Each structure stands twice: as structure tokens, then as C-alpha cells.
Amino acid sequence: MADMKAFRAAVTTWATGGPDGPARDLAEGLGVRTAVLVEGLSDLAAVEALAARRGRDLAADGVCVMPMGGAMSVGRHAGLLGPPGLGLRLTGLCDEGERGFYERGLTRAQAPLRDIYVCAADLEDELIRALGTVGVEEIISAEGDFRAWQTFQRQPAQHGRPRHQQVRRFLGTKKGRKIRYGRLLVEALAPDRTPPPLACLLASL
């Protein structure tokens, strides 16, 4: 049975020059009505983890969280998925530094800019601030990464850097780590500590 993973794969193929038919057929068959544009897989993991914690089945609601492989791809994806293409409602989550890419992409796709939720630096930064560095270090330890974290802190480049910045950088130092911790940090959040951009995004879906 087709699922949102298949739809995401079909959209990715379409965005890189493949045929549009598979994505159109899957969108219709799955009842997709909203596409959430995010930069990468760690954002996907975080959004899906929060939805699960809130008892939401995004696929059943016709919502597809679409990682684009970077903010520079937003114009292409907005055109394919929004009014010029599949006609889906577009929303999204982006970093402050990438806001311009989203604004230009959604404007060209004739989609409302109000549905884009902006993180102060990036989503990892928002989650670290919500949990506190001590809370994140507890998760790192529970995941068996504390020795790697200590080794990382001893690197000359990390000397004198604020602990918050060290933690944020550490999460991106190994392939797959940001994705794994994107889910873990969300799962550790107290209900009233969800970063506003993430909470507002889910509430809008």
C-alpha cells in the first residue's frame, strides 16, 4: 500500500527532472491536501515526533512533511506542490537565515507567507534552548554518546565557546546524528516547553 514515504520519493524524483505522474497519482490516492516544506530530514523527524506525542496522524489528515534537501530548493518544491502544480496548501518551517528563500519561493507559487514558521537560528537551536544544555547532555549520555561529546569539547576549536553553541555543533558532527536527536529532543520536551515555531506549525495543520 502506498504511503507518504512513496509520495515524498515521487516528489523528489519530480523535483530533479523526473515525471510528474507518480506524484500526482499518489497525491490523489493518499488524499494529500497540505505539504509542509522543511529543509532536511532532522526537521522531518522533529515534526513527526511532535505529531506523535500530540496523538496526531498527519498522513491520515492529508499532511505530508516534505524535506527538500536545503532551503534553496523551496522555489522548485513550492511550484510543484503549490497552486502552480498539485494545488496543495503550503506551509513550512525554516531557519531565520533562510527566510528569504521561503518568501521568494512561496511568492512565486502564489502561496500565503503567513503559513511559514521561522526558527531563531534553526530548529536544533530552538530545541536546545527549550531543554537547556544540561537536559540535552542527559539525553546525549543516555544515548551512549557522552564520551564522543567529551572528546568533541576538548577540540581546540571548541575552547571558549558557549556550551549551547558546542551542543548545537556536536549534533551536526556525525551523519545521521541530527536526524536521531531531532526526534529524541522533541520526545524529551515538557508539554509547555515546545518551541513556538514548532508548536504553531503543528497547530496549523
Gap from first CA to last CA = 24 Å
Q: Show unreliable segments.
A: none
Mind summarizing the main beta sheet? 4 strands, parallel
Radius of gyration: 18 Å
* Strand/helix succession: HHEHEHEHEHHHHHH
Mean pLDDT: 94
Helix content: 40-55%
**Strands in their spatial order, largest beta sheet:** 2-1-3-4
Q: Let me know the number of strands.
A: 4
Q: Roughly what fraction of the amino acids lie in strands?
A: 5-15%
Give the CA-based shape. elongated
Going by helix content, strand content and strand pairing, the class is: alpha/beta
**Helix run count:** 11
Mind explaining what this structure looks like?
The chain is α/β, with parallel strands linked by helices. It contains 11 helices and 4 strands; from the N terminus they run ααβαβαβαβαααααα. The protein has helices at 4-15, 21-30, 41-53, 74-81, 99-108, 123-131, 133-142, 146-153, 163-170, 177-187, 196-204, and strands at 34-38, 63-67, 89-95, 116-119. Strands 2-1-3-4 form a 4-stranded parallel beta sheet, with helices on both faces. β1 (34-38), α3 and β2 (63-67) form a beta-alpha-beta unit. The longest helix has 13 residues, at 41-53. The radius of gyration is 18 Å and the shape is elongated. The model has no long low-confidence stretch (mean pLDDT 94).
